[in-house]
Amino acid sequence: MEVTKKSYPENYWKRIVFTFCMGWTIIWIYRSMLSPIYEEIQGTIGQQSNAAMGLISSCYFFGYTALQIPSGLLVDKFGQKKVLIPGFIIFALGVFSIAFAQNLMMIYIGAVCAGVGCGTYYGAAFSLTAQHVPAEKKGLSTAIVNSGSALGMILGMVGSSFVVKQLQLPWQTMVLISAGLIVFLVIWFALMVVDSSKVPTQTVEVVDNDGVEQEEVVSVESKGLFRKELLASYLLYFTTCYAYYLIVTWLPNFLENERGITGSMIGIITSMIAVTAVPGALYFANLSDKHKSNKEKIIIGLEIAAFVLVAGSILAPNAGILAVVLLAYGFLGKLAVDPVLISFVSDKASKGKMASTLGTFNFFGMSSSVVAPWLTGLIIDKTGSGELGFYIGAGLLALGTLIFMMASRKPAR
After folding, report:
1. Model confidence pLDDT, tens digit, residues 14-64
2. Contact (CB, 8 A) for 36 and 341
3. In Å, how far from its chain's centre is CA 13?
4. Closest CA to 32 of 9, 56, 65
5. How far apart are CA 193 and CA 187, in angstroms?
6. Within a 13 Å sphere around the CA of 86, how many CA atoms are in the beta-carbon half?
7. Residue 176 contacts by C-beta under 8 Å, 6 or more apart in sequence?
8. Fewer CB under 10 Å: which end of the chain, C or N?
């Protein structure tokens, strides 16, 4: 008796990789486009404090983080397409409402809606990638998908500066462009995405030896979301993201106030992380594909390197050495380990709980984006220095790596 699996379009996995790379690009255009034009936004809603304007981003990430686990459960129950499309309709409506907002509260509400809608993306995107990309290309494909975030960040920041500051168009123009791209994504998802199996059982066509077609229900392995190796991965991702968001949020302030680096050098040095991030992600993802049995070792090696570099960023005696440290962190740090960790978690996840597992994984990581900036700011207020905050980030990274090493250790025979 020969079993044939459900058929998908030829090279469907390549379509998936392109689709979700494009999706991250459009998401990050929205995420990064508002901060360069805060001044112009205040021309419509009135003068606001820096904290009040920064809360726009916090509202988005609150909605996004809150939806990670629920959206994963929904994807596993109803399928990726039936969650993605309604989610991105909500995302588009939230962004449209920001374009027509007349006060700050309306922008906050729109940002929360945008975050809630966008929160349906992660579990759906990476569960489809995990299910359809060939095992030998899984890490590299995940890195390509993730590279959309770097491209989107560049397009969002440069685009909003060009459209609003150089062309002197209303700030709402860039927001409407972003909303239009999100609507395009909804249509693209509807036409191009094919739902995978929705529940922990799968119906396949069965052809017996007489050529008679039958249907057979095949059970799919289902295990918990908090098994030892998965829980260790979640904790490691929290500490990895904690160090990353600490650096991107507070490093410019630290350089100016505690290292005496001023002017354009601050932006240049901080941007060093992005310069080497994409090649680092592609290299280590490809390495993990070639050495699938050593993914844990690659992850541990990258995390140890990140710990050394985060600690080194505090101790660097001058701008030149700091730039080298941050270039190395970009190549070896959070953005490089992301695709390898996602591939590792996908391998360990139960097939019927793929999106739920990935959503839980991302929830832990994104939670750090709420904790790290606030806690480090509190430390600076109390002590007058950010050094302790950076040491906490490095210490957490070391702790997360140690827990992951212990959980990944294979029992002696």
Report:
1. 999 999 999 999 998 998 888 778 888 888 988 887 778 778 888 888 899
2. no
3. 20
4. 56
5. 10
6. 8
7. 96, 99
8. C
